[in-house]
Amino acid sequence: MSYIIKKCLIKKKIIFLFFIFLIIVSGIYFFFTKIFLVSSEEKAMKELNYAKQYLYKGFIDKALNRKKIKINYLGFSGIPSKYPFTKASNISKFYAGICYYKLGFYKESIKMMDQFSAKDEILSSLKYGIIGDAYVQMKNKEKALENYIIAANVRNNEITTPLYYYKAALLSFYMKKYKNSKYFFKKIEERYPFFLYKKNVEKYIVFLEKKN
User: Fold this and answer.
1) CA–CA separation, 173 vs 184, rounded Å?
2) With respect to CATH, is domain 118-212 assigned 1.25.40.10?
3) What is the pLDDT of residue 42?
């Protein structure tokens, strides 16, 4: 009988300790999300907005601040390491990728874009498009083409889809992949009649049809 009582007491103790554990974990989670993260997000957003001001004025190096021009200013390059769990940190990676590209640091641009998590479909398309542009600059045409195709197919829309099909078509043309090039140009012609470079598309199609 005493054995059964002891067993019941042990079970109750385990259940009690389990609930204590849940309370502690919940408290830590609440503190982290509601206090620590909110405070970090506010600070990160201030840094992000400060960096954006430089970018909008055309001061790309200052916006990125990769050389730590000002000690008390993070820039797009410093925000992700200081505030890694914030939304501002994530979008900073996108801006940093753009800045690195503009400054000619293509590997760094690709690295930052790879780290950027894009929920917005247009931003996601731009992400892969910029990666494609960076690979073009690095003379890696195959990787560039791969990323242009991804960028075009993130989601069908009238802006980024024809733009990156156009880049894929041009790149395929200069790689002498004429069949692929014609395929991408034809997609634009058939599906996106209001594309900005429609006349160029038509000229390339005529040329490629004659070539075949």
Assistant:
1) 10
2) yes
3) 86
How far is Cα 202 from Cα 187, in angstroms, rounded to an integer? Answer: 11
The residue-averaged pLDDT of 21-25 equals 47
What distance in Å separates the CA atoms of residue 212 and residue 200, rounded to the nearest whole number?
Answer: 18
The angle, 0 to 180 degrees and rounded to 10, between the axes of the packed helices 198-211 and 160-174 is: 30
Domain boundaries, the chain: 1-102, 118-212
State the maximum Cα–Cα separation within the chain, in Å, rounded to a whole number. 97
Query: Is the model's pTM score more than 0.85?
Result: no
Quote the CA–CA distance of 212 and 210 in Å, as a whole number. 5
Helix 87-102 vs helix 121-137: angle between axes, to the nearest 10 degrees?
A: 30
* Cβ neighbours for 99, distance < 8 A, ≥ 6 positions apart: 55, 60, 61, 63, 64, 76, 77
Q: For residues 42 and 32, is the Cβ–Cβ distance under 8 A?
A: no
DSSP string, 71-125: TT--HHHHHHHHSTTSHHHHHHHHHHHHHHHHTT-HHHHHHHHHH----SHHHHH
Please list the helix, strand and coil fractions of the chain in percent, rounded to the nearest 5, in that order.
80, 0, 20
Distance (Å, whole) CA 81 – CA 74: 9
CB 211 within 8 A of CB 188: no
